[in-house]
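Tokens for chain A. Residues wanted.
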């Protein structure tokens, strides 16, 4: 992770294509939804791909998001009192979010890999997962969705 140098040749071309799929407008919509869903306590990221990645990287915001989609008393992800600082704990928190999202109904093909977020390999995949989760929440119409229903497709 820390020793990864710059990409060259075909690797750079592939990474460049992946990065072009990232949508800044979609990021704004997702941030608005996450804040509406979880409350102002989650804060807001700095604008841009890197700010969004740093905001979600420790898994706490994602865990609060998925927990907010469940009724009180049945929260699928345990959130530690202090945000995890160790890398493997942060990755474990992201993995718990991914498991909970899949259990909620997000199709496995719409779910990103932990490294996509943690190392910012494919932030567009992270956006796809959050879009799928939001769309499911709107479609379920169980009273746990907060925000504008027009932000997501049913």
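Reply:
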């Amino acid at each position: 992770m820390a020793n990864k140098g710059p990409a060259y040749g075909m690797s750079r071309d592939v990474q460049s294509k992946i990065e072009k799929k990232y949508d800044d407008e979609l990021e704004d919509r997702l941030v608005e939804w996450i804040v509406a869903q979880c409350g102002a306590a989650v804060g807001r990221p700095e604008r841009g791909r890197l700010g969004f990645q740093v905001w979600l990287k420790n898994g706490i915001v994602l865990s609060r998001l998925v927990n907010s989609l469940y009724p009180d008393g049945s929260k699928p992800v345990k959130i530690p009192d202090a945000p995890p600082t160790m890398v493997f704990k942060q990755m474990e928190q992201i993995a718990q979010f991914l498991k909970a999202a899949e259990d909620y109904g997000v199709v496995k093909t719409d779910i990103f890999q932990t490294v996509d977020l943690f190392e910012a390999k494919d932030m567009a995949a992270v956006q796809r997962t959050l879009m799928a989760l939001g769309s499911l929440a709107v479609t379920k119409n169980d009273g746990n969705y907060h925000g504008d229903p027009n932000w997501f497709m049913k």
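Residues 46-149 form a domain with the Actin-binding Protein, T-fimbrin; domain 1 fold (CATH 1.10.418.10). The chain has a mean pLDDT of 89.
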